Amino acid sequence: MLLIHCPYCDETLPESEFAYAGEAHIARPADPSATTDEEWRDYLFIRSNVKGAHYERWRHVHGCARFFNAVRDTVSDRFLTTYPAGAPRPALSDLEASE
Amino acid sequence: MSRFRVTGKGRVDHHAPVRFTFDGKSFFGLRGDTLASALLANGVHLVGRSFKYHRPRGIVTAGSEEPNALVGTSRGRGRFEPNTRATLQELRSGLVAESQNRLPSLKFDVGAINDALSPLFSAGFYYKTFMWPKGFWDKVYEPVIRAAAGLGRAPETTDPDRYASRHAHTDVLVIGAGPAGIAAALAAAKAGAKVVLAEETAEIGGALLSDPEVVIDGAKAWNWIAARAADLAESGVRVMTRTTAIGYYHQNMIGLAERLTDHLDSVPENAPRERLWRIRARHVVLAQGAIEKPLVFHGNDRPGVMLAGAAQTYLHRFGVRVGDSAAVVTSHDSAWHAAFDLQDAGTGIAVIVDTRTDVREDLVAEAERRGIRLRLGHTATGTDGRLRVSALRINPLRDGSVGNGTKVFCDCVLMCGGWTPSLHLFSHTKGTLKWDAENTAFLPDRKSEAVEIAGAGRGLWGYGAALDDGAKAGALAAEALGLSAAAPTHDVRQDRPGTGTAHEELPTDHDRGHTRAFVDFQNDVTAKDIRLAVREGMRSIEHVKRYTTTGMATDQGKLSNINGLLIASNALGKEPPKVGLTTFRPPYTPTTFGTFAGYHRGAHFEVTRKTPIDSWAAENGAVWEPVGQWRRARYFPQGSEDMDDAVARECRAVREGVGLFDASTLGKIEVTGPDAAEFMNRMYTNPWTKLAPGKLRYGVLLGEDGFIRDDGVIGRISDHRFHVTTTTGGAARVLNMMEDYLQTEWPDLDVWLTSTTEQWAVAALNGPKARTVLDGLVEGLDISNEAFPMMSVADCTVAGIPARLFRLSFTGELGYEINVPARHGRALWEALMEAGKAHGITPYGTETMHVLRAEKGFIIVGQDTDGTVTPDDAGLDWAIGKAKPDFVGKRSLARPDLVAQGRRQLVGLLTQDGKVRLDEGAQIVDDPNQPTPMKMIGHVTSSYHSATLGRSIAMAVIENGRARMGETVHVPTGKGVEAAVIASAVFYDPEGGRAKL
Ligand SMILES: [Zn+2]
């Protein structure tokens, strides 16, 4: 059971309060009808599937109910940071330096 | 008392006999015994038959790593447990134990024929032996394997015991209360940390309990333990005995199984049998010690052959000699001490065989002083005896060759192949291990959690080293929490440090192709099997493991993994770390299902959601159906009706008169705010801008991939308020999806989403007489067809209850859905039943609802769709707002595969024989006589008997189905193949006039 820090509640709470919500920073195209089939396919299906630091979304579903972003190491399952939805993607070098 | 019990020795109470039975025979042990020590005290070594070859097996260890002494234990009806470790089970009065894997008796077993047939059961036998002849699998091999498979027998009744679970937080959790663990707990606690110390056995002390002559800081071992126990209590350390750490999870969460009652003579009423702890620790100290390795030689599995350290434990901790005459075979110093101690207690030492020529001088001198026959530079090559060892065959090793064998008579063989640091929990954390060639052991390397490993667990040997290292680990843990800590050192006398060497299979003069040198006792894997696996191409230890099943038994290879690895790496000609170690996974030891289930059993296993009308349904004989977490009334049988009778009657009532249905489980979401209409436009396929307040519309929700996710009728209550209904099972998913888009894609929209599923009770009134029944109950609203036509919504009161009235139809008949605050649900229902009495109002359930909607061709998302169905596939093209610039999934509807020809389309299906009901899920083919594999062109999604139509009806998805009306396809049934004609899915009232009456 992971402990996850909700950036809105500013509390570190058990995983059972949260739900995973897929890779982060994949914005829906502003005008989907203007995308090519390949661009739309990439938006729908292509994910980074990294071994290591993964930018992903979580929802504090049994708490404040808000979606937020996290960087989690997919090897160790360790959270490097969590941050509000809409905030810029933190640089990996910053995260590793702060470890 | 048996001659094997040593008066004055052990931590047992020699004045407290405890009666128990084993295989029906009555025995006495002592208070403080384990089942294993009590059996050994009675001279019983033979305790079971092995899994594959049914070879007689005896007790090998004195701990939870025991591979052989697994027995069935019971405490009366329902309280039977298979595979209890006799070495861990404390003796209790009246304990009933039985041996396993024997037929008909332990001493004579017909399954032992497998032993004679062992060439058939060599490595990979599952993959090879049973391949030929082909027809033999079903009739011969499989039944035989099934009969022979499994370890022990499964309990036959529901477990009547209670199990508990608890969460806890602590600063430092120390696992293992041997010398290192005790020192660690004290160092951390004295620095001010909150400490929990967990110990698997009944008392703290670890190996010191088996080495009472050791002197620590001037105190003899047992006095030191007693003083430290007081110290621990005074320092506020929570000591948990009989508690096994079974799993080490992320961020220092440890699962521990605490055994609460299995050791008690009688169990207090309602006391939980076991408790699962989830302890979150800021820092962990693993002090789990080391596990002794067996030596691998021909006949090393005969009862009476056991680990030297186990014999020492039986002597000192339980006051039991494991035999009268012991032959010791070792490659490590520690077994020499065991030999000396046993000799002091009266067991003759027939010989000490050490594979090394160069053994510590003090040990050799002591053995010589004691007159013990020594055979240095020797190997063991066999044992004699049937149900108990009677002799050991030993041979000299000279210049790499094995000399002639001689026999040494004995009644037990004590072996020691060195020690393996116990790093199972550390491995659970994905901490890495590095190979230590000198100790031939894997030692902890890189850590992934806040953890220290102390003592023998990281390859340190001797009590002084373990104590000092434990204290250091405890201090480090405290310092990691910001406390200032001290790590005291210890003055240890009579310490027993030692070293040794490691072997793969011991050298032998036998043909190694014919020796039975066991590596994994529990899964009956020999050294030969492992070499065979390598010869047959297995290169990684993970492959060798699966091919031979070594290390895959319930002990997870605690004794066998390193020996197996050494043999495999030798056969491969590679260094052990290049071959690798298999992965340890939780639980560390087998754990009961009850412990994992805890309180979650019976009615508490899962939430059962009940509607406000549920109690009425229960009182009126409803047959239930689970839908998601809800229980719903499926039908209401009368008299001797079966389901078909009841459903036919309920259907007729709705079609001809009036029926009442509890629709409260429908998901409901209130969408409000100035941008509510815009939000609805973006979420659902339909256009919402022009839907006037007071009107309803059927809405379809897609995923971004263009496939149907949900549907439901949506009412516009006011300009800025929508009452959305979802499928029963989809409510939470739809709200989550709405929140996701609202929060992350369109945070600029001014909209609020509120789940109102449980705030409304919903009664669906359907049938030509629905208005007649409702009319007298409604106030504040004209419900005539002209004033309140199909697809209208309005607030009013019904039977004096404030209500939100929907006029819609999921049955094809005139219909209303009356929403009232949940607390009035039952009152509303009863008022409707009362008002409808004169008109024959009939309550109906979900099964009838399904038939009625299928007669109309209305889909159920999740039954007629499966996540690969587009609106066009489902015939819902009309529900798409094509003029809208965008909605979720719109772009995908233009994806090449979604506009391609040949997609499966939802159609009706009428069997040629109207009495035949197709199976839902049945595959559909064009030509039933084509060669296999046949080309499937679709499948049946819904199938019922329609009382209204007097025949069966079905819905199906079929390639190009809508263009194939009237064509015949074929569907397998249980009995053969049924021909069916493709038809419109709207079987009843295709013009839809009845709902608009
Ligand atoms: Zn939160």
List the keywords:
heterodimer, A: about 100 residues, alpha+beta, four-stranded antiparallel sheet, two-stranded antiparallel sheet, about 15% helix, globular, B: about 1000 residues, seven-stranded mixed sheet, 24 helices, 52 strands, about 30% strand, binds zinc ion
Task: Give the topology, please.
The complex is a heterodimer of chains A (99) and B (997).
Chain A: E1 3-6, E2 11-14, E3 19-23, H1 37-45, E4 53-59, E5 67-73, E6 79-84, H2 92-97
Antiparallel strand pairs in A: 1-2, 3-4, 4-5, 5-6
Chain B: E1 13-22, E2 25-31, H1 35-41, E3 46-49, E4 56-58, E5 70-74, E6 80-85, E7 95-98, H2 113-116, H3 125-128, H4 136-148, E8 162-175, H5 179-190, E9 195-198, E10 215-216, E11 219-220, H6 221-234, E12 238-240, E13 243-249, E14 253-259, E15 272-286, E16 290-292, E17 305-307, H7 308-318, E18 325-330, H8 334-344, E19 348-354, H9 361-369, E20 374-376, E21 378-384, E22 391-398, E23 401-402, E24 406-409, E25 412-416, E26 419-421, H10 424-428, E27 433-436, E28 441-444, E29 451-453, H11 463-480, E30 492-493, E31 518-520, E32 525-526, H12 527-535, H13 541-548, H14 561-572, H15 576-579, H16 593-597, H17 614-619, E33 623-627, E34 630-635, H18 643-656, E35 659-662, E36 667-672, H19 676-683, E37 695-702, E38 708-718, E39 721-726, H20 731-745, E40 752-755, E41 760-766, H21 770-775, E42 778-779, E43 792-798, E44 801-807, E45 815-821, H22 825-836, E46 842-844, H23 846-855, H24 896-899, E47 904-911, E48 923-924, E49 938-946, E50 951-959, E51 968-972, E52 977-983
Parallel strand pairs in B: 1-7, 8-9, 8-15, 9-12, 15-29, 17-25, 18-19, 18-25, 19-20, 35-46
Antiparallel strand pairs in B: 1-2, 3-4, 5-6, 5-7, 10-11, 10-30, 13-14, 14-15, 16-26, 21-22, 22-23, 22-24, 27-28, 31-32, 33-34, 35-41, 36-39, 36-40, 37-38, 38-39, 41-45, 42-43, 43-44, 44-45, 47-50, 47-52, 48-49, 49-50, 51-52
Helix pairs in contact in B: 5-11, 7-8, 12-13, 12-14, 18-23
Zinc ion binds next to loops of chain A.
